[in-house]
Design goal:
heterodimer; A: alpha+beta; 7-stranded mixed beta sheet; 5-stranded mixed beta sheet; 20 helices; B: 88 residues; alpha+beta; 2 helices
């Protein structure tokens, strides 16, 4: 751990007690499942037992007759998706139309776990019993679970109306390929012709889940006056409101979302899952309804990260300069279009200073749950492939992997995927910090019985911006109530409050951050894309400055002479000087209200870079890999609240290691998900991981007054290749398919020992 | 003259050219100029008089203002970018 510099700041870079700490450690904080409403019913969802089937009929009469059941809903209770007007959502129209079909299957189920019906009853047990009394007749259809198979001619089609979109034009044949994108600059053919060495490899990664500990829960009350209130945890209560408005065809002004604390999201709670069920069950029963998921439903029925295929080709000179990079990426979108294929492609070419590149990306539907965001969506998959090939290039050139990356690192002025050029970025500084780290400077020591290896990997994430709102109100006791429009993920409420505190010169403890419901604060985009500490923090900074202007104006009126700021947050006039708190008391006594509301759209986020170093040991007999030392170096722009920055790096790295070694959806031949429990879906625990050392690099973002860049997503990007590269260093095999389970690695070691080529993709 | 960066998917219409100079003072005139030289480009960029959903324009490094009426300077570079969502 390195301690960031405060650079003259009194709040930023320090470690005050986080504002939600006491409530969370004492159990007072309310999470999704804690919501209670008078006369509340309990709802459960019936899910498809098949991967692909036509729904011939649904008979709910026996369930409705069960004592205690108050409402049963099917797709007929939602507006017809063909009639849905789609205006408010940021994701475009097609994904939202499909979102309606994903909420409750209409004529076909498209994956094992697809919601078919829902029940509200006086207790959860009765609701569950009622699910068994719903008779659904299916006609089985062939399923396709692998994206590359889904792309082939003659593959089972999921959505008969789907045509491939390419640059605003649509293909003329039914397909499972929802879109084909390309990013290309320079001349890759000429670049490869100039290369002395070309390495080309194929890779795959499995479908993985975000693994948030808190299962989904939503409690809805649809009043007789038409007002719909939902209490739930999400990454964006305005997104939940707007999507509900679209799906239910109900005015957003009549929907109020109360944000509760969130037990992890990582991208998976950026959209509605069971909120529409709770709402419609409440409308139909006339009573509040709470709907919850169990763990199996979370894994089967929410939105994991896309499984993928990549082909990467890199050309280099003998001096180690990359001359061309070509990449093909296929992401499995799940049952409906819209995987993060764009960021996957962008991040594939964002690490290096490239003049010649081409990336083709394919968004493909398969009979799996509709994917959603997962921490730097798309980047871990494509970066795993690129950084594995880069490692092989280094090996074949006999070049140090950090020196090679320094030679080729993206820098200010380097081309981005979309043809624009980078502003100030920190990849070189991260590489230099990694090279100087104790981990890199300390030779790896081998030990008997296992093989040890060291790997390096880099990662890039775009970071995002968008709209944010805060409302800063001065109270009579000299504290500031800070209403934040962004829900708190990973401690953002404190990081935002600290930026306000710094701006006005008061302690962080004197700011009281609060996240009100959607009717009590102006619209903010969701907490995602590593945007919140950056853009909502920027809004808090501006609100602080506005609050100071208001206080200066008020004191000038009171004193009849011009007031000015003095050091320590206080104010002075010609004849007197007061502290911030005294100024607040004076203004309150005079009924001068100081209330600053700031809504802004940040112009541009600062892209993020990270370098990881991993030491692993491999038991060649069993194929088990153990991570024995791990260092994560990351450019954070400016570390506002160091414990949270380190926590984000720890968490993202742990998830990346799980993606590399353990995690993956496992389907049988019929398309049934067979590991929908946390016993069988293997996320790493603390016992599986070493202490993750963090090195925080601060290359300020020129678009933020304190230099903040997004922090939360980039840590998950480098670990996949870093681990695979360390395994190669240990045992000499290149693992091209994730996860690198013991059985898969043991099989590759057996092939190595038999003298066969390994690691050419699934 | 403003220079337009043509997205890779549309270069089949520009004979592979990535950068095209267009005499224009607004974003709308840029698209008119592109359409004149490369018929078919307009429908790939514009729907119902606006940039098609999911597409945004960058003019001189900043988001275009005023939709198609937004001004374009003589030395500006113009990019058409797909909107990209994030995770968490």
């Amino acid at each position: 751990m390195t301690e960031p510099k405060t650079n003259g700041h009194t709040v930023i870079g320090t470690r005050p007690r986080r504002h939600d700490a006491v409530d969370k450690v004492t159990g007072r904080a309310l999470y999704g499942v804690d919501a209670r409403m008078p006369n509340m019913l309990h709802g459960r969802v019936l899910r498809s037992p098949h991967a692909h089937a036509r729904i011939l009929s649904i008979d709910t009469s026996r369930a409705e007759a069960l004592p205690g059941v108050r409402a049963v809903i099917t797709a007929k209770d939602l507006p017809d998706p063909a009639d849905v007007m789609l205006e408010s959502n940021e994701q475009g129209s097609a994904p939202l139309r499909y979102k309606v079909l994903n909420m409750l299957a209409r004529d076909r189920v498209l994956y094992h776990g697809h919601a078919v019906a829902a029940v509200a009853a006086t207790d959860a047990h009765t609701a569950k019993l009622a699910l068994d009394l719903i008779d659904v007749r299916y006609e089985l259809l062939p399923a396709v679970l692998d994206g590359r198979e889904a792309m082939r001619e003659g593959a089972p089609l999921l959505l008969p109306e789907l045509r491939t979109e390419r640059g605003g034009a649509f293909g003329d044949r039914p397909t499972n390929v929802a879109s084909h994108i390309t990013y290309a600059e320079g001349d890759v053919e000429r670049g490869f012709a100039a290369a002395d060495l070309i390495v080309e490899r194929e890779f795959t990664t499995a479908t993985v889940h975000q693994g948030y500990i808190e299962p989904h829960a939503a409690t809805a009350s649809w009043g007789a006056n038409g007002e719909l209130v939902i209490e739930c945890a999400s990454q964006g209560h305005f997104v939940i409101r707007d999507e509900l408005a679209d799906i239910l065809q109900w005015p957003p002004s009549k929907i109020r979302i109360v944000p509760l604390e969130i037990g992890g999201g990582f991208g998976g709670k950026t959209t509605v899952w069971l909120e529409p069920h709770a709402a419609v069950l409440s409308r139909k029963s006339g009573r509040p309804v709470k709907v919850t998921m169990d763990r199996a439903e979370v894994l089967m029925g929410t939105g994991p990260a896309a499984g993928s295929y990549e082909r990467v080709k890199i050309g280099v000179t003998t001096a180690g300069r990359i001359t061309a990079l070509e990449c093909e990426i296929m992401l499995e979108a799940g049952a409906f279009p819209s995987s993060p294929i764009d960021p996957a492609a962008i991040c594939a070419v964002g690490l290096y200073d490239l003049e010649n590149f081409r990336v083709d990306g394919y968004d493909v539907v398969v009979n799996k749950p509709k994917t959603t965001a997962y921490r730097a969506p798309g980047a871990p998959q494509s970066t795993f492939a690129v950084e594995s090939v880069v490692d092989e290039v280094c090996e074949r050139l006999r070049m140090d992997p950090i020196e090679f990356r320094l030679l080729n690192a993206a820098r200010e002025g380097s081309l981005r995927a979309d043809g624009t050029r980078f502003r100030r970025i920190g990849m070189i500084e991260c590489l230099e910090a990694a090279r100087a780290s104790d981990h890199w400077m300390t030779p790896l020591v081998q030990t008997k019985g296992v093989k040890r290896g060291r790997g390096v990997g880099a990662g890039h994430w775009i970071n995002t911006s968008g709209q944010a709102t805060v409302n800063a109100r001065l109270d009579a006791d000299g504290t500031v109530l800070l209403l934040e429009g962004s829900v708190d993920i990973g401690g953002t409420r404190t990081a935002i409050a600290m930026q306000l505190a710094e701006a006005i010169g008061i302690p962080a403890a004197d700011v009281h951050p609060f996240i009100p419901d959607t009717s009590s604060v102006v619209h903010s985009r969701l907490t995602g894309g590593s945007r919140t500490a950056f853009v909502t923090g920027l809004a808090a900074y501006e609100a602080g400055r506005e609050l100071q202007r208001m206080m200066l104006d008020g004191l000038t009126r009171l004193w009849g002479a011009e007031a000015r700021r003095v050091a320590g947050g206080g104010f002075a006039g010609p004849e007197r000087q007061v502290s911030f708190k005294d100024a607040a008391r004076l203004l309150a006594a005079a009924r001068i209200e100081c209330n600053a509301v700031v809504t802004l759209k940040a112009p541009e986020a600062g892209p993020a870079y990270a370098i990881n170093i991993a030491d692993v040991e491999v038991d060649e007999e069993t194929g088990k890999t153990r991570v024995i030392r791990y260092t994560a170096v990351q450019d954070v722009g400016k570390s506002i609240y160091p414990p949270h920055v380190e926590g984000q790096i720890h968490g993202g790295t742990a998830q990346g290691i799980g993606w590399a070694l353990n995690e993956g959806y496992w389907y049988d031949a019929e398309g049934h998900l067979r590991n929908a429990t946390l016993l069988d879906y293997r996320m790493p625990t603390a016992l599986d991981l070493p202490m993750i050392e963090t090195i925080v690099v601060e290359v300020p973002n020129p678009k933020h007054p304190y230099g903040v860049r997004g922090v939360g997503e980039i840590p998950i990007v480098p670990p996949l290749a870093t681990i695979a590269n360390a395994i190669h260093d240990a045992v000499g095999v290149r693992m091209a398919d994730l996860p690198i389970t013991p059985s898969r690695l043991a099989a590759s070691l057996a092939e190595r020992d038999a003298g066969r080529t390994v690691g050419a993709g699934r | 003259m403003p220079a337009v960066h043509v997205p890779a998917e549309l270069r089949d219409l520009t004979g592979g050219r990535a950068m095209v100079d267009v005499d224009a003072r607004t974003l709308g005139e840029v698209i008119d100029g592109l359409e004149t030289r490369y018929p078919g480009l307009r429908t790939r960029l514009v729907t119902d008089g606006h940039l098609r959903p999911g597409l945004r324009a960058l003019v001189a490094g900043a988001p275009a203002k005023g939709d198609l009426r937004g001004p374009v300077g003589a030395t500006d570079e113009i990019f058409f970018l797909r909107q990209i969502g994030g995770g968490a």
